[in-house]
Amino acid sequence: MIFLVVTFVMQLVIRRYRPADKDTVLTLFSTGILEHIRPCFYNAMTSPLYLTITPTLCAVGYLLGSVFGAVLFPAAWVGLIYYCCHEVYASFVRVRLRTDMQDIPGNFLSRPDDCFWVAEAEVGARAQVVGMVAVVAKHSGTEKYGEMFRMIIFPQYRRMGLGFRLTQTAVDFCKERGFCKAVLETSSTQMAAVALYSKVGFNQIGNYYYQLLYQLKSILCAKLMLNCKSQPYL
């Protein structure tokens, strides 16, 4: 038996954002945020508390003498939880598309200490934006640091080292600008991202719970930091 292995060479360039990238970047942003709905919903429904609530509602409906209620009560509960998970991410996308993502040059490129990059892959003769990341300068007392935002890659281009290159580009920028540190926040549903940031040199410095609608669900978010003055250039 003969196996035919087809390979292709992908040329990759990380560069500053251009106005012509806007449509693809906004699509990438929306896709990257909304894909967290399902993991969030799964984590909610498989938590010990919700694994108890769902069959309890089923039993309550049955005890009330209605098979329909035994199905309706837990179904309504599951639907409500999915709505909460969907709305927290969908509302975030709606707000950002009307605010900072609506004017990327003005919000991420108008100051020398801010930057927005895209990763452009060239497969054959076609160039396409497949990833992005941004850094915004922040101040804490007399110290200046960089906060990473909008780290997103199209699914089909992941696990190719692109995430590492984008993150390292942002970290190197923070060092060049003389920032004392680089910080970012991510959620517990993004396990691959947490592993990537740890590989680059970020350490977790804290966490908090983000409450969803009516506190029916919370998302564990982690704060990570990299000391720019102690980490060498790669």
TrEMBL record:
Residues 80-226 form the N-acetyltransferase domain. GO terms for molecular function: N-acetyltransferase activity. It comes from the Eukaryota. The chain crosses the membrane at residues 59-84. Pfam families: Acetyltransf_1. Keywords: Membrane, Transferase, Transmembrane, Transmembrane helix. PROSITE patterns: GNAT. InterPro entries: Acyl_CoA_acyltransferase (IPR016181), GNAT_dom (IPR000182), NAT_camello-type (IPR050769). This is N-acetyltransferase 8-like 2. It comes from Maylandia zebra (zebra mbuna). The lineage of its organism: Eukaryota, Metazoa, Chordata, Craniata, Vertebrata.
